[in-house]
UniProtKB/TrEMBL annotation:
Biased composition (Low complexity): 187-202
Biased composition (Basic and acidic residues): 204-215
Domain of life: Bacteria
Name this protein carries in UniProt: General secretion pathway protein N
Region (Disordered): 156-222
Length: 246
């Protein structure tokens, strides 16, 4: 640092030193000794709880029943009660099978007493408690007084159709290795023309009855085919479990 720079810094440093000296003299003379804390204020008394106005009574819960009976964000405006994953029970009924064809959509149910119930899409249960509104590949949706209940097939339940629509239904293999007895009846191939007998001299009454009987027989044949497949899978699983226990 040269002499010119020192001369430029000397006046500011002298002024700063003088100010600090004056502050020190003021502190030694008693500057700031008269500062005191104010006395603490008395706490305000809490309000009397008995003097507070009582709250109005709550409205009844049923007044808001429309909130859950007609959900705003549900397109159908109906509550949806979904069953737990893997649960296929509706009261005492359990979902055991699904039938999905272009002409037939049906759910197969079984009760605890072994009663089998077949419900077509759009039809109600025998007791009228619920209606089958939708059939899905792995489940069915029933609608009742308590809303909609989604039932799912148990793990491993078969839903596949037979490989050939016109072929006979394969029978489950016997558990003990014995030869299986011949089937009691064969399923009529689907779509096979049924001969109609025409009475000469007038219209035959069979012309009106035959198409209805043919449609009913076709649906019954499909139901029997899928039912046989379900029984086959069950028998195969039972045989596998029996061999595993040995």
């Amino acid at each position: 640092m040269n002499a010119a720079a020192q001369r430029r810094l000397t006046p500011p440093l002298a002024i700063l030193a003088a100010l600090l000296g004056l502050l020190l003299l003021a502190l030694l003379a008693g500057l700031g000794r008269g500062v005191r804390w104010d006395p603490p204020r008395a706490a305000a008394a809490p309000p009397d709880a008995h003097a507070a106005r009582p709250l109005p009574p709550a409205p009844p819960l049923q007044q808001f029943a429309e909130v859950w009976t007609r959900p705003l964000f549900n397109p159908s405006r109906r509550p949806v009660a979904r069953a737990a994953a893997g649960n296929g029970n509706l009261g005492e009924l359990q979902l055991t099978g699904i039938i999905l064809t272009p002409q037939l959509r049906m759910a197969l149910l079984r009760g605890r007493d072994g009663t089998e119930v077949r419900v077509r899409e759009g039809a109600a249960l025998p007791d009228g408690s619920s209606t089958l509104v939708e059939v899905r590949p792995r489940g069915a949706v029933f609608e009742g007084a308590g809303g909609r209940v989604e039932m799912e097939l148990p793990a491993g339940a078969p839903i596949d159709a037979p490989s050939r629509a016109g072929g006979p239904v394969p029978q489950p293999p016997p558990a003990g290795g014995a030869a299986a007895p011949p089937p009691a009846e064969l399923v009529r191939p689907v779509g096979r023309p049924v001969p109609m007998r025409v009475v000469a001299g007038g219209d035959s009454p069979d012309r009106e009855e035959r198409p209805r009987q043919d449609e009913a027989a076709t649906q019954a044949a499909r139901v029997q085919q899928l039912k046989a497949l379900i029984e086959k899978r069950r028998a195969a699983q039972a045989a596998g479990n029996h061999q595993g226990d040995r």
